[in-house]
Design a protein that fits this description.
Helix content is 60%, strand content 7%. With 353 residues, the protein is of the alpha+beta class.
Length: 353
């Protein structure tokens, strides 16, 4: 061993370089520089530290120093500087390549994990490399804002630092996908995703976060991820203003939209007559939406619509007359509210069906 735990192979030819510099005062040749770079790459690939590698070369420089010849000191030091610089260049080149390869492997794994495109057994094996044990339950949270996120962006780095600082390792995976910020965490650690949601919201001065339900097995991550995406889509179409949405709280909506044709028929049959209203169905549909959102409280609905209670009452009576359904009647209310939800989900009346 050459010292500092570095094998002699990584100093191959270095003594000859120093001797030649002391004898002739020349600089390193192109071949010699390239040989140093190659040795630096090899050392990085083998897992040797750059600090130890440089220390070994400095020790070798001292061992092969031409004692008693002060006239060649500058030449020897210049040769040593060139050699160490080339060595470090090769070492750093290998590290950059390793980082790019690691990033590519991580991105490929994330794509396979979130899209379920790989053999589940192989996916579980690959997951352990990134700290996930897919045999357990996992839940996924997705953060989205108007600007979007990219890998290496300041927001993902800030959120990741906060998560690691609070929870340590804990088998958490934080990444970006399709301009969204994605966090995968063990299903029995709901506090991780809650904290993630708070940090993402704070780091962006406001964003929307959806959290999927915990799901078991390698395919569970895909299911939870798709639930979170579905919740974000619902929030946009239904204009929810809550910053954090939980798929478990929104299960009624997929049920309502599972039979699209049945929902379309309900919307047309129940709300279609609103087209006869002056100004079209829009104002009356907005009135129903505000009325149901307020819990059917007339005064609160009137404030939300900037109307008087009398004007609101007139609108509700108009809806009753056109549709035959009374919003204030509990028997009719469920049908009307379901139809209003369906209209928002199907983008009616802007979309015809």
């Amino acid at each position: 061993m050459a010292g500092h735990g570095i094998p002699d192979d990584y100093l191959d030819g270095y003594a000859d370089i120093l001797t030649a510099a002391a004898r002739t005062g020349r600089r390193l040749t192109r071949e010699e520089l390239e040989s140093r770079r190659a040795l630096g790459e090899r050392a990085a690939d083998a897992g040797h530290g750059l600090r130890a590698l440089v220390g070994a070369h400095l020790a070798a420089t001292r061992d092969h120093w031409p004692h008693g010849r002060s006239d060649v000191a500058d030449s020897v030091l210049a040769a040593a500087e060139q050699a160490v610089d080339a060595l470090a260049e090769g070492y750093e080149r290998a590290q950059r390549l390793a980082v790019r390869q690691e990033e590519a492997a991580r991105r490929e794994f994330i794509d396979d994990l979130l899209y379920g495109r790989s053999d589940l057994g192989l996916l579980a094996e690959r997951a352990e490399r990134f700290g996930l044990r897919l045999s357990y339950e996992h839940a996924v949270a997705v953060a989205q804002d108007q600007h979007g996120y990219k890998e290496g962006h300041a927001v993902p780095r800030e959120v990741e630092r906060a998560l690691i600082g609070r929870f340590g390792d804990r088998s958490i995976l934080l990444t970006t996908k399709d301009s969204r910020l994605v966090c995968v965490a063990p299903g029995d650690q709901a506090e991780v995703l809650t904290f993630f949601a708070k940090q993402a919201y704070a780091a962006t001065d406001g964003c929307r976060v959806a959290i999927g339900r915990p799901r078991p097995g390698p395919g569970g991550v895909v299911q939870s991820y798709e639930e979170a995406l579905g919740a974000l889509d619902l929030a946009e179409r239904l204009e929810f203003d809550a910053p954090v949405l939980r798929a478990a709280d929104l299960l009624v909506y997929p049920v309502l939209t599972r039979d699209r044709q049945a929902m379309a028929d309900l919307v047309l049959h129940t709300l279609g007559p609103l087209r006869e209203a002056r100004g079209g169905p829009g104002p009356l549909l907005d009135t129903l939406t505000a009325y149901f959102d307020s819990g059917c409280v007339a005064a609160e609905t009137a404030r939300a619509l900037a109307l008087s209670v009398r004007a609101l009452t007139y609108r509700l009576e108009r809806i009753h007359k056109l549709t035959g359904a009374n919003p204030a009647d509990p028997v009719h209310r469920y049908t009307l509210q379901t139809a209003v939800i369906g209209a928002r989900l199907l983008d009616w009346p802007d979309t015809q069906f």
